[in-house]
Amino acid sequence: MGRRFGFDKRSRVRRPAKSFYSDDSRGAKLPVVFLNWRSLPCEPNPVIARGCAAKGSIVLIQTVLLSALVAVVSVPVAAAEYEDEILVTATRQPLALKDALPSSQVFTQEDIERLQPRDLPSLLGRMSGVSYRASGGRGSVSGVFIRGASTAQSIILIDGVRTSSATIGATALEGIPIESIERIELVKGPLSGLYGADAIGGVIQIFTKQGKQQRLTPKIHASYRTDDTQEYSVEISDANERGNVHATFAYENSQGIDHTSIKTGGNADRDGFDEFALNVSASYRIIDELNAQVNFLRTDAYSEFDNLFGDGTEFDADTQVESNALQLTYTPSEKLRVRFGANHFVDEAVTPVFFSDVTTRRTAYNLQSDYQVHDDHSVTLGVEYYDDKVDTLDDFVETSRDNIGGFFQWQGRYGKFSAVGSVRYDDNEAYGDQKNGSVALKYDVFENLAAVISYGTAFRAPSFNDLFFPGFGNVNVKPEESDTVEVSLKGKHADVVWRLSGYYTDVKDLIGFDFATFTAGNTSEATLKGVEAEMSYTYADWFFGANMNYLNARDDRLDVFLDDRAEFTTNLDVNRRFDQLDLSVDLQAESGRHDGRGIEIDGFVILGAGINYRFNEKFRIAARIDNIFDEDYTLNLATARDVFRTYGRTGLVSLHAAY
């Protein structure tokens, strides 16, 4: 929830992706031989297990009552800060968050420091409309669902760079280090009119840290969690009137937890995780009108995993993720800005036990111009090209494909009405052309109350596995397509910033396993509909933030709940500042999550608390307790009877120093 609104270790063997309704296309759970085996996707059983419904309802009632209690006894992102917050992702250009028409939210570095998350997926799970799935301990395969759309149906950007693997079509979120993140922007809804393929659920953009201090400033960080996880990082930052530079080196070592509740075949051990990460960024104003920005991020991770059903432990996987970006921004006048970007993304996974070594690479170029017609109207015109390549031991039919797309956006205001519309055309070498667009209209009912209605189309591109995997791929697989309608009310009253949204998404031509041909195919349809309520409030040294979400995500042909999506989720965050000391309490709750072909998982409520104490500007100490009441909860099933484990009560202590 943040202050501002607007399975297995990651061996990631490139096996055929699952269908929309099974897991999140990062890999199948049934049947599996090893803990990280990607088997062919299975259709859900049309007979739904309806157990645990009563307990889920009780959790929901408890959550709502607790939400109301916290709202009464506390005074709920700071209103002034909200007014000043800038959002880039919604329109591909800077925009005040309060003026954004799509449902949007921002996490800043201050939010990250306060919440002290274990990893990126669990942090994203605190955002409104986002639920996440983990498959064990640190480093295991994770996924996020934006309004019910899977990771493969949403775009994850790092400094403007697409980060999905070309073979499985999804992003390895568990491999993106928290220590390198400065801010996160979430924009929900169909955005293929601006970003092209895979923007059915929305776009999450991660911005890495930039140099800000007007002098050379080294920083060090060290932390220890009671599950034997150690984290260390060193940062160096410098800036002057012409530019800035920043570098972060981070290392994490975790003894981990056993990934499943299964105790046979050596599965009672601990599965460890190690990660090295390097982030470098620099910006320089060459002349007054021309600025250059470069960003580099690389992570190298080592993960352990076990055989799920038999003997065999201490298998391992090595993974690397690398993102490189260059952007030149030319601003010849106050009305015109032209940007050129070039980037390169690499995703590699080596898993010796499966004789698997897969690398995907994406090289992309884009050119965009923004023109301010006058104070109330602007237009954006852009063209984008990218080329995907796959290097694998498997004999793929094709190992490369390219895509070229062009887009147009208009933003305008007429009195109390504001509008934004976009349209984009994509031509892909592998699956043909796509036309998508969206339009949103806002009406200012009163000075501090507005109504927004929007409609948009989007699509998800078939991955290399869907099209070309030996024995499974089908070159006739079509892209998934969606239509979305959303209605929102948003406002600011007595420094309370709030938004209430309802949405309906119809997804056609879902990609899954076609039993008629035993290959990939467009096998089903789905409906995603829900309601989101978000609010934040500050008073004096108090802060309160909350979001509550309802999601009904179903396979229309089989009339079953889609796996891994929680029906009800709630996030609460209360913070109090006492001069040099910050105290925070947060709550996460959910119910109605289904998995394993219709099995309903018990709901849960998890409470956490943290402190930050600043001795001075250069030194602070932080501590946190997660899952205070040691709740035994489940996010993901390993089989119909066994679960992937989650963390119990853990403590964290960290030191932060600057020189």
Features:
Maltoporin, Chain A, 22-stranded antiparallel barrel, 659 residues, 5-stranded mixed beta sheet, 7% helix, 6 helices, mainly beta
Q: Helical proportion? A: under 10%
Largest sheet: 22 strands, antiparallel, barrel
List the total number of helices: 6
CATH class: Mainly Beta
**CATH fold description:** Maltoporin, Chain A
Rounded to the nearest angstrom, the radius of gyration is: 23 Å
Uncertain parts: 5-81
Sheet/helix structural class: mainly beta
According to CATH, the homologous superfamily is TonB-dependent receptor, beta-barrel domain
Strand count: 34
Percent range for β-strand residues: over 45%
CATH architecture name = Beta Barrel
Tell me, rounded to a whole number, the average pLDDT.
Answer: 86
| Number of domain modules | 1
What gap, in angstroms, lies between the N and C termini? 32 Å
